[in-house]
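User: I'm writing a tutorial on reading structure tokens. Could you give me a worked example: one chain, its sequence, then its tokens, then a sentence or two explaining what the tokens reveal?
Assistant: Sure. Here is the example chain.
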Amino acid sequence: MSEDDEQWNDGHRAFLQAFMARSTMTLDEAKPLLAALLTAYERKETLPEDITEADFNSYISAANTRISPFDLEIRSTFHQITRTRLYALVNSTSDPIIQLATVHTAEEISFLKRVLDAMFETFNTSRHEVMAITSMQALRLCKPRDTEAATTNGVETQGSAGQGLKMAEAEKTLKTLVEEGWFEKSRKGFYSLSPRALMELRGWLIETYNDVDEEEDEEGRAPRIKQCAACKEIVTMGQRCPQRDCTCRLHEICTQNFFRMQRSRNCPLCKTEWTGKDFVGERAAPKNGQQAKRRNGGGSNANASRISIDEPSLVEDDDDD
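And here are its predicted structure tokens:
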């Protein structure tokens, strides 16, 4: 028996099975699991508080060795709000959208793409960098627009030319995407990408939404997908530089340590004073007063898009708040 086989036992197999069933896991969630496995398979009474981060990492390392030939890997990232380190099982090579297509219908994938376009294009402007979508807005995308192109380079694409989903089907799909760990839903009803999704979709998001054509590039349009100046991870919730043309972004949880190492509380790129009052995420959504002012001001093209950044539905009432 090789040394590798000796380091891989039934406890490791049970851990990997449990991880694959959950898709994501934190250290606190892993502690009772590992304690039970060590007690059962090593016949050593172990309590959750006895489990260390090193123990957890050793099981992850062993699992990664076993699953790497299948293009799978357990990776970690920090939650943008709580800063909790989250571990997720991700596909390291294949297109994540193709991966989703193995468990979702073509119409559901088409709906998902419309929701992502809304998050990172419609609701991601220089004025309001929301990168989230409310339930009402998402459900309005259950069917493709009449003008939506059904082909790519003259060839019909899978799931692009169907009839769309019924409202109830779209609502169920959103719920399923939350349960599968792709979306998170906030108390105010905003859907956004989860840490697991940001980790697995990172390359696809950058390639899809930062791939501007030459004309847009010459005009100096900032990339839609931006990274935190401190931790270098994608920012969909956090703070932004008050200077609208500046691309500097910081996670809320990264700002304190970041500016502690700076001589002044200024943007590291453009040197504008960092106020901490300019946001990325659902807090960047226009308030009702701003919406009413713009609607009364006119000048908008109602047919430009089915949903607009200035719609009153962008901020929904929340009885829990």
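What the tokens reveal: The chain has 13 helices and eleven strands. Residues 6 and 66 are 13 Å apart (CA to CA).
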